Amino acid sequence: xxxxxxxxxxxxxxxxxxxxxxxxxxxxxxxxxxxxxxxxxxxxxxxxxxxxxxxxxxxxxxxxxxxxxxxxxxxxxxxxxxxxxxxxxxxxxxxxxxxxxxxxxxxxxxxxxxxxxxxxxxxxxxxxxxxxxxxxxxxxxxxxxxxxxxxxxxxxxxxxxxxxxxxxxxxxxxxxxxxxxxxxxxxxxxxxxxxxxxxxxxxxxxxxxxxxxxxxxxxxxxxxxxxxxxxxxxxxxxxxxxxxxxxxxxxxxxxxxxxxxxxxxxxxxxxxxxxxxxxxxxxxxxxxxxxxxxxxxxxxxxxxxxxxxxxxxxxxxxxxxxxxxxxxxxxxxxxxxxxxxxxxxxxxxxxxxxxxxxxxxxxxxxxxxxxxxxxxxxxxxxxxxxxxxxxxxxxxxxxxxxxxxxxxxxxxxxxxxxxxxxxxxxxxxxxxxxxxxxxxxxxxxxxxxxxxxxxxxxxxxxxxxxxxxxxxxxxxxxxxxxxxxxxxxxxxxxxxxxxxxxxxxxxxxxxxxxxxxxxxxxxxxxxxxxxxxxxxxxxxxxxxxxxxxxxxxxxxxxxxxxxxxxxxxxxxxxxxxxxxxxxxxxxxxxxxxxxxxxxxxxxxxxxxxxxxxxxxxxxxxxxxxxxxxxxxxxxxxxxxxxxxxxxxxxxxxxxxxxxxxxxxxxxxxxxxxxxxxxxxxxxxxxxxxxxxxxxxxxxxxxxxxxxxxxxxxxxxxxxxxxxxxxxxxxxxxxxxxxxxxxxxxxxxxx
Length: 750
Ligand code: ACM
Ligand code: ZN
Fold this sequence. Notes:
By secondary structure, this protein is α/β, with parallel strands linked by helices. The protein has 16 helices and 37 strands. The protein folds into 4 domains: 17-164, Chitobiase/beta-hexosaminidase domain 2-like (Chitobiase, domain 2), CATH 3.30.379; 170-521, Glycosidases (TIM Barrel); 538-606, Immunoglobulin-like, CATH 2.60.40; 616-748, Sandwich (Jelly Rolls), CATH 2.60.120.260. Helices cover 22% and strands 28% of the residues. The chain binds acetamide and zinc ion (ZN). Zinc ion (ZN) binds next to helix 9.
């Protein structure tokens, strides 16, 4: 038996030992642990932290012990020393590695946590397992424990036995630091939040068209020049204006990580049992490196070429040098090399690329990309690492040792498994946290199963897991990143940890409600759920009843009717009430003591007055406008570039220019009273107004967003205006209307 390395005060304390007891299957009154553990059994009594509490660690678990002790000191105000040893003597938390015979069913990352009134014990087969037991213990304390207090506080933890292990070994979050740059301090905060929810992979997207972010010794220009772009406004993304000036005048947007900072972040992540998988994008999405080193472009070079020449040996020399530096900084087994969305037109026109295809007997540009990836795969394999790339690397033939990250749906992952390869799932349908919450709600993320039905049972092990992706074109600030990630990251955390058969959406949402207070304490600007209206949000009538579904526990709905945005001092919604025509109610969800409102819900009652104009004929009037905006301008003050008539809303009437606006206007003919659903989608901004009332507001720059709104309408003819603008890149606008009878578009003749 080991003895304590530090002296403790002399009086006799009851000795207690860790015992392994089979768990009851039932889960009674579990604290709100996310992700939900495999087995949780409530026991009699509770453990209480006190002045005496120590963290006692064996088996080299000092780092885990310090991690826990720091948390407990802040939570309790007690001294909580860490002491090397193998036995508690009452009131302590004991950390240790499980004996070989106790390692089943924990696996590499599982743990056993026992909370008894006399003491707490956590054991895992590895330090990672112990670390996850610590995360569970933290969540068994109340949310207030996350706030530092000057007063000592004797928190209690309910006695319980937890046996827990993850379903997947790749539980990831991805962050694009190229489109927008985030400093090391933020990354550490992000890693802390990941660790709390048992994520273990941080996919660091270091290279893209928006800037090169990793310092290189051999290629200093990559960050001297390639990390700093001209931006139309500081911090604002614009694909149209990606240029990296040779001489900086101080107005550029950017930043990069020094090699020292990278080592520090990698070590910090390792202390949280998070592996950082760096992504060095190739052959595409790499404008800055080609701007800085033009010999990496094709012959002849393309304008704004952001794809390396696949015919030039200089490309491979450059990439092998960069990868050598990358491997030196990142111990990760997996190295991500991108591979997505490569525009191969430059290769088709390049003398060297064509020669390469002939020499290597390559029959298509896809095979040329496959050749490219195979060479990198061979290089990484030689260096003892494993290549992973976006699912496009399947095209033209998968390199012999490569793994696949499936993003354009799950098909790429399924195909990889068919070829007996490993895959990580992050389909746009569930895992793209840059998509709006309307498009990808938290509930939908929760329901994600990384193993699709098409995977044979015996091959499921080839699916390593899943990750949430944060592409930051539209996330210029840290707060925005956190808002888009939380709470969806909690839903994903459970989808990648908890066994499928133990997942339960209702139960998760109840636990999630208790995590909002935790996120408040951690100052995470998460997305609160919006109030859920129990009826239409726009009614054309003389009066209407406003009703909302009850707010979740710990939250309240507040509203105004004077046109001002709701704040924490606005009226609290209690029960349904009536508003009269001409009223616009603005409601938002708040936590009990939070300042921060959810996205707002508007409920409007509009008088259905108005004569049917004479001379209406089928069709929609449209006008196009040229200009660059970040929000919708008032089109009625601008001169249209073109006007015309169409039969539907869409970008088929757009002008040739990349940046433009369209106003659609006319009348909606409703022939039957009832509720109609208006579904508006757009990339970029759009706003739909009916009879002057805003129905859907998607204003601003963003990726595709879609939302549907219920409107109660009486028979009649309603004027409408739908404004849309596009700032460059992908564009679309669509409007679908469903109701008891078809709604016709009409316009004034002439
Ligand atoms: C991707 O979203 N282009 C991987
Ligand atoms: Zn070329």
